[in-house]
Amino acid sequence: MKQVIDGKLYNTETADQLHQWDNCRYGNDFGRCEESLYITKKGSYFLAGSGGALSKYARSCGQNSTCGGSGIEPLGKKEAIQWLEDHEGTKAIEEYFKADIEEA
Description:
This protein has two helices and eight strands, in the order E-E-E-E-E-E-E-E-H-H. It is of the alpha+beta class and 104 residues long. It has one domain (2-97). A hairpin with a 5-residue loop joins strand 6 (59-60) and strand 7 (66-67). The longest helix is centred in the C-terminal third of the chain and has 10 residues, at 77-86. The protein starts with a strand and ends in an 8-residue tail after the last helix.
């Protein structure tokens, strides 16, 4: 998936995937959602995801209807860490953000 946002190209084929998550719903479920966190070669973080008609990736498909869709969302470093915390990404945090966490 590729998308230009604010003059920057985000490309899942050239970025490194840090973590993948899905909400465990079947592929035809309107609430299905799957996302992956990536880092570009220049160090920018972004989410790439897709979902059904009741997910955050829903798109208008006319006449008061929604359809599933996909998209890319740029994230800052703190947002990326928070997304990992919220989406079972402890292993990725320990691997990629070791300097940003501390023992409790």
